[in-house]
């Protein structure tokens, strides 16, 4: 564990020890190690009695698909996404349906990608009925769309909306037009209000029912707060950390990227353990705007503007409770 900690200093020490113990236990059960040493089984890279995984499929006219042999992990994931299982075994049978193809479209596949995937991996000609089914599903898909947003901006005329979209802070606020006089922002309402006021506008804050929110009048005299001699411990932060330690989390880069995309699609807050530019460990609660090019563009809870955090600097991620 000391060697692993040296090469991976950002890994939590407690979790690294648990992983090592689990791997050694499984290796002992499989006979890969014995009496603390590697056995001859560790040098056996493949089993001559098992066929090599492949990517070939047999598409049939009844909308079923047969895998004549074991599939590669990537092929198995794609097939499970696009078709529902009907039987198990070496030559497993799956069926394409409206719901299974819609599941693939919801995951980001396009009509051309599905047709190309069929043509690439099918050992037979793609049945005409399957192509017709795909066209029907694509025709109905996406008629209603749902987007995540922190607040809604309503203006009097399209020209004002265009001015906001072309402003310097449009990217930082995550502005997007959804109607001629309606914009949505990914930044929190307080941050959006402050940014609009900084541009010389006079926005009005409204609640979820459209009623104007009146801010309380500040006190005439304010007593300056005394600076604490030491950093106080926030009970809420301690409680959240204890709860988060028992919740499922993502640790590897692929798992973190997957969880970030899930949080982006759901519009959920996510707690990130990451390393900043100075090498200091940080913990932030953010809302993800986009995940691309090995980095996540996000906004911090409670303001602070937009930040871009590279995926390799993320150590751990977990969804925040609503």
Structural class: alpha+beta
Q: Please provide the ordered H/E string of secondary-structure elements.
A: HHEEEEHEEHHHEHHEEHHHEEEEE
Query: Any idea what the shape is?
Result: flat
Largest sheet: 5 strands, antiparallel
Radius of gyration: 27 Å
Oligomer: single chain
Number of helices: 11
Number of domains: 4
Count of beta strands: 14
Estimate percent helicity: 25-40%
Mean pLDDT: 83
| End-to-end distance | 36 Å
List low-confidence stretches.
none
Give the neighbour order of strands across the main sheet. Answer: 13-12-11-10-14
Strand content: 15-25%
Task: Give me a quick take on this structure.
With 322 residues, the protein is an alpha+beta fold. Helices cover 35% and strands 20% of the residues. It has four domains: 1-42, no CATH class; 58-140, no CATH class; 151-199; 248-319, Roll (SH3 type barrels).
Describe the overall structure:
The chain is an alpha+beta fold. The chain folds into 4 domains: 1-42, no CATH class; 58-140, no CATH class; 151-199; 248-319, Roll (SH3 type barrels). It has 11 helices and 14 strands. The strands form 4 sheets. Strands 13-12-11-10-14 form a 5-stranded antiparallel sheet. A 4-stranded antiparallel sheet has the order 3-4-6-5, with helices on one face. It has a 3-stranded antiparallel sheet with strand order 7-9-8, with helices on one face. A hairpin with a 4-residue loop joins strand 3 and strand 4. The two termini are 36 Å apart. Residues 212-235 are annotated as: Disordered.
